[in-house]
Design brief:
Helices cover 45% and strands 7% of the residues. By secondary structure, the protein is mostly helical.
């Protein structure tokens, strides 16, 4: 990569290195770039390359002076920890810092507007770098999600909705507003920004305890440092180091290559299912723009149960959407929820509906979602998604949708192979000959299934198709799925006793298969799923 420096910029660089030469005795500079040692043989392009690869040595006195020059209502205190974190951002992870600078042009204007609205220090925008490296869908081991890393409980407390379709902890605008309100509460509670930042990381209760341990009066972050969790001890120093690295990146020769352009946006309210990809086609914008503005839509869709839900779009398209609202929403609604390719759970190959056939299962007395999932080889999470179940509770005679492989589909049910469906204004009628071939192939598949029963049933005499009973989803499950081990609870049984009776079975497995929690009472006569043979 090449940079074209103006004559004024080159002169500035020469003056800068003249200063370095004069200061070498005081600060101990031992190594200068090669172009400075051989000025006569160095071209402007090679000068640029040398500058980009040059990593200045860190000196405590220079860092202290620069931190003191940062105008901020939050103290930019120097410490050894701060210098170590500065080394991370300016030396060890220079490439990552360059990426952060490139991302900042998109996110910082949003943060700055929210902080100004809440009358808070603008430098708090750098906290999002410490939390998520400006990644809207970042997730931590503690289930914290989003730019500002809200855990589920705190997110709900500050009005951030979370479900299978939507997680507003990833919403750029709503999560930023929630973070401002939470930080303002912590500052008003502790009366010190460093303590407020520490509480944002480990919780106000833990900071209160540390303050009491340190004496309880006139204490600051550095006074309670040794009483804080290890992660929190580095949290405030990291925040100070990010402020330094982002404001003095040029002094450390860290230059961004391509800044991310901000997307001025506005919202439209929708009260129906909306497929984001199709919506982007209808308003003629790249779908990546809508996804970037709406990272909280985990499935790139707005569910039908949301009323007057704001969808963020590029501002210059607002007038077009208002003028063509009905046609756009109707087209975006064609790819219905049932036709979407769902992926739920960790095993996408099992949970997706793509390439599978929908059948119906009637719940029998004593069955659980886990048991039904074992019969059909699908996950409990998939069953909940396909049937819009808020939890694992089901009842006898309830009909459930189950997506299985086409070979498992019964003959008396319509074979509806699921493929990704998107709205298409220019759709043409399907070829009648192709439709006839598909029906013929389906009939052939059903006929082969009837004439070639599973190996376990080959020894049974064949009966005519007219005399056979109608094949049901349960019959298919019995023939194709492994048999399930069932244990009937006896008086005095505990989960530990039951697990010991079956080889390779643990208490956790039994609890998971039967939706048992620590508060569940075990009643004699109840049937428990143990596993499969």
């Amino acid at each position: 990569m090449k940079f074209n420096f103006s004559a004024k910029q080159v002169l500035t660089l020469i003056c800068f290195f003249t200063f370095l030469t004069a200061a070498s005795d005081s600060y101990g500079f031992k190594k200068f770039p090669k172009f400075w040692l051989e000025p006569d043989s160095t071209s402007l392009d090679s000068l640029t390359d040398e500058l980009l690869n040059y990593v200045p040595t860190l000196h405590a006195e220079i860092i202290k002076d620069r931190l003191a020059c940062i105008q901020s209502s939050i103290k930019m205190t120097y410490s050894k920890d701060v210098q170590n974190w500065i080394a991370v951002y300016t030396v060890k992870q220079r490439a990552q810092t360059k990426v952060l600078i490139e991302r900042s042009s998109f996110y910082f204007p949003i943060f700055e507007e929210a902080l100004k609205r809440h009358n808070m220090p603008e430098e708090l925008k750098y906290l999002a770098i410490v939390e998520s490296a400006l990644t809207p869908r970042a997730a931590s081991w503690a289930a914290a999600v989003g730019l500002w890393q809200f855990i589920p409980a705190t997110g709900k407390e500050y009005g951030l909705h979370q479900d299978w379709f939507i997680d507003e902890r990833m919403d750029i605008y709503k999560s930023t507003d929630a973070a401002c309100r939470y930080l303002k509460f912590l500052y008003n509670y502790h009366g010190d920004w460093h303590l407020a930042l520490a509480a944002y990381n480990c919780g106000p209760g833990r900071v209160d305890w540390a303050v009491k341990q340190a004496g309880g009066k006139n204490v600051d972050f550095w006074s309670i440092y040794n009483y804080l969790p290890r992660e929190t001890r580095g949290y405030v120093p990291a925040f100070i180091a990010v402020n330094y690295a982002m404001q003095y990146n040029k002094e450390h020769f860290i230059f961004p290559e391509k800044m991310q352009e901000p997307i001025p946006s506005d919202t439209v309210l929708v009260s129906q299912f909306v497929n984001i990809e199709e919506f982007a086609k209808q308003i003629e914008v790249p779908k990546e723009h809508l996804e970037k503005l709406n990272p909280h839509l985990k499935k790139n869709a707005i569910p039908a149960y949301k009323k007057n839900y704001p969808l963020r779009i590029p501002a210059h398209k607002k007038e077009y959407v208002n003028a063509n609202r009905l046609a756009i929403l109707n087209a975006s609604n064609r790819a219905s929820r049932r036709e979407m390719t769902f992926i739920s759970g960790k095993d996408a190959e099992i949970s997706t509906t793509e390439g599978k056939t929908k059948i119906y299962h009637t719940v029998a007395f004593g069955q659980s979602l886990a048991l039904i999932g074992l019969k059909y080889g699908v996950t409990t999470a998939s069953l909940r998604v396909w049937n819009r179940l808020p939890n694992d509770m089901i009842y006898p005679n309830q009909k459930l949708e189950v997506w299985v492989k086409p070979s498992q589909a019964p003959a008396n049910q319509t074979l509806t192979l699921n493929q990704p469906v998107l709205a298409n204004n220019n759709a043409t009628p399907q070829n009648p000959q192709a439709t006839t071939n598909q029906v013929s192939n389906q009939k052939t598949a059903v006929k082969n299934a009837l004439l070639n029963p599973p190996a376990a049933q080959v020894s049974k005499p064949l009966v005519s198709q007219a005399n056979t009973k109608t094949t049901t989803a349960q019959d298919i499950a019995k023939n194709t799925a492994p048999k399930t081990k069932i244990h009937v609870i006896q008086n005095g049984d505990t989960l530990w006793d039951i697990a010991k009776k079956y080889r390779g079975v643990t208490v956790e497995q039994i609890k998971k298969l039967n939706n048992i929690t620590d508060r569940t009472m075990l009643h004699p006569g109840r049937k428990l799923v143990i596993g499969t043979n």
